[in-house]
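[Discussion] Sanity-checking designs against the backbone

I'm trying to build intuition for which residues belong where. Below is a structure token string of 507 positions. I'd appreciate it if someone posts a full sequence so I can compare it with mine line by line.
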């Protein structure tokens, strides 16, 4: 009868989380590279190139693919014949594994989990607790399916209790455009159908962790209704023209994965959860023989892609920038930023706007006059790093603060991930500011442009503290110009029309 030892289980959890922090699943790299090779949208192709280059850099340097190192989700299938040699519960062992992984001094992972979520929202400091799902099954092994799910993609999870006669396809095609680009496409859409409300959500999450095989399915053809639905949604979601990072293009999803379960005759529960360009998951089995082994992939399996900003890219000195210069920037233009910027996310924005509303001065060393604020919560540095992976966070979360910040701080603009909502766009136009987009899923690549970093305010907020960065040639795209035009509103429409005119080639 297999004996699963406490430290073997804990260390396997810790090792798996380190492994997936810097190794993309190979099927994802292959699918993304295929999409990159066929992409016709220059902006989307550029974004995919940055994601692929970032992935290889992380595999080489053993550093996180994304600054958001996720909330740990674990699905366990525990054999009924398994015995445990442990002083801890299974959940406690999982959490100890998470703690070891996220505090590993050789590859520190960002602690993003907050306790008291409806109240003070205090960071637990070690990314615990994980979300653990357990099933007791026949057998004598412990199967572990583990993921580190980014908050940006998790925020776009959707659920709907459809009527039995309603079309799942219609709901998906209506819902995906409302998700924006904050989930960092191209990625995978996991869909759960049936059961109850909570079961559908679990099915969708499990579907996200399955292997990408849509091209094989296209080649052989569907053999059941779910496979037919996968193919239909794959074609129609990509035909929406949303594209990589929402910049318009041929590929929005790399695969559609669906799991179903019997449901009540009166119901048709449907859940949809996207997995982003920093998809991180791995499956392993413990049989009592020791710690799980994770084989490092070959670096030769990553495509050799180089990235250049191009001759048309505009170099910008952030330390001498004026509103007049900002007004000349064109929508979709590539900028290379050098100089000083400040950072700030949700918690920092809330404190800053509260101080402004109370008429209090901002903290010392926080002067936004003619500066940019970068929406980021970086990973802690290791060894000789200036800063750890430091990619952008979803900008729409800061929309409600935008008017106050632009009206009272002297900001010239903001840098973040994905689109802005209309309330932010209106404020940007009103104050003749701009919004610049950095590529989500290229956090390690972005961090290499940061030459200096120091915390200047709100150190108690951990990764949400305000930093001062000095950057050199940090690549960004003008996503909302001073006239209030948004590339995330215009580009998908352009590419949806282009895709509609591409002839369909029958297999």
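Best answer:
Here's mine. Compare freely.
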């Amino acid at each position: 009868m297999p004996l699963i030892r406490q430290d073997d289980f804990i260390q396997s959890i810790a090792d798996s989380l380190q492994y997936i922090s810097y190794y993309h699943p190979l099927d994802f790299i292959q699918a993304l590279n295929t999409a990159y090779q066929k992409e016709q949208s220059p902006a989307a192709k550029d974004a995919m190139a940055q994601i692929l280059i970032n992935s290889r850099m992380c595999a080489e340097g053993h550093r996180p693919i994304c600054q958001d190192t996720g909330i740990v989700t674990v699905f366990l299938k525990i054999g009924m014949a398994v015995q445990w040699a442990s002083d801890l519960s299974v959940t406690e062992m999982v959490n100890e594994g998470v703690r070891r992984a996220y505090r590993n001094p050789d590859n520190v992972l960002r602690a993003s989990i907050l306790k008291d979520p409806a109240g003070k929202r205090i960071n637990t400091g070690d990314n615990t607790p994980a979300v653990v799902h357990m099933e007791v099954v026949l057998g004598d092994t412990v199967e572990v399916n583990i993921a580190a799910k980014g908050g940006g993609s998790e925020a776009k999870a959707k659920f709907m209790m459809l009527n039995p006669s309603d079309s799942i396809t219609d709901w998906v095609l209506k819902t995906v455009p409302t998700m924006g680009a904050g989930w960092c496409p191209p990625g995978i859409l996991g869909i759960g159908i049936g059961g109850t409300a909570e079961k559908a959500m679990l099915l969708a999450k499990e579907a996200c962790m399955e292997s990408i095989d849509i091209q094989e399915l296209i080649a052989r053809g569907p053999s059941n209704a779910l496979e037919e639905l996968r193919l239909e949604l794959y074609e129609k979601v990509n035909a929406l023209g949303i594209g990589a990072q929402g910049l318009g293009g041929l590929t929005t999803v790399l695969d559609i994965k669906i799991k179903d379960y019997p449901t009540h005759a009166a119901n048709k529960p449907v859940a949809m959860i996207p997995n982003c360009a920093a998809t991180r998951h791995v499956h392993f089995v413990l049989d009592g023989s020791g710690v799980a082994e994770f084989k490092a992939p070959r670096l030769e399996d990553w495509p050799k892609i180089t990235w250049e900003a191009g001759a048309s890219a505009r170099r910008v000195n952030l330390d001498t920038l004026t509103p007049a210069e900002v007004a000349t920037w064109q929508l979709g233009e590539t900028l290379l930023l050098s100089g000083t910027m400040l950072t700030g996310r949700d918690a920092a924005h809330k404190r800053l706007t509260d101080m402004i509303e109370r008429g209090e001065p901002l903290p010392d060393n926080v002067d936004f006059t003619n500066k940019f604020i970068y929406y980021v919560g970086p990973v802690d540095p290791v060894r000789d790093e200036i800063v750890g992976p430091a990619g952008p966070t979803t900008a729409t979360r800061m929309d409600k603060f935008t008017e106050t910040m632009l009206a009272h701080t002297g900001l010239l603009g903001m840098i973040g991930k994905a689109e802005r909502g209309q309330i932010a766009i209106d404020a940007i136009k009103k104050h003749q500011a701009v919004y610049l987009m950095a590529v989500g899923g290229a956090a390690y690549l972005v961090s290499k442009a940061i030459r200096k970093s120091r915390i200047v305010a709100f150190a108690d907020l951990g990764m949400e503290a305000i930093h001062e960065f000095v950057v050199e040639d940090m690549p960004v795209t003008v996503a909302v110009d001073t006239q209030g035009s948004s590339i995330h509103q215009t580009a998908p429409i352009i590419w949806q029309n282009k895709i509609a005119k591409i002839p369909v080639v029958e297999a």
